[in-house]
Amino acid sequence: MSEEWNQKKLSLQPEEGRYDSGIADSVQSLGDDGVSRLHSLLEEGDGKHHGVRSQVPVTVEDKLPEIYELERIDSTYGSSSLIESISASCVSQSTPTERPALQEVRKLDPQQLDALIYVSEDGDTLLHLAIIHSMPDIALYFTSLVTKDILDIQNDLYQTALHLAVYLDQRRVVEALVFKGANGELQDRKGDTALHVACDNQHLECARIVLQGLRGQLNMHLQNWNGLSCIHVATLKRDRALISLLLESGADINDQEGTSGKTPLHLAVEIADCSLVTELLSYRPCVNATMYNGCTPLHLAVGRKDAALARLLCQAGADTLIRNREGDTPHDLAEGNNQLLALLPFDDLKISGQPVVTSA
Question: Whole domain around residue 278: which residue ranges?
Answer without folding.
Answer: 260-345
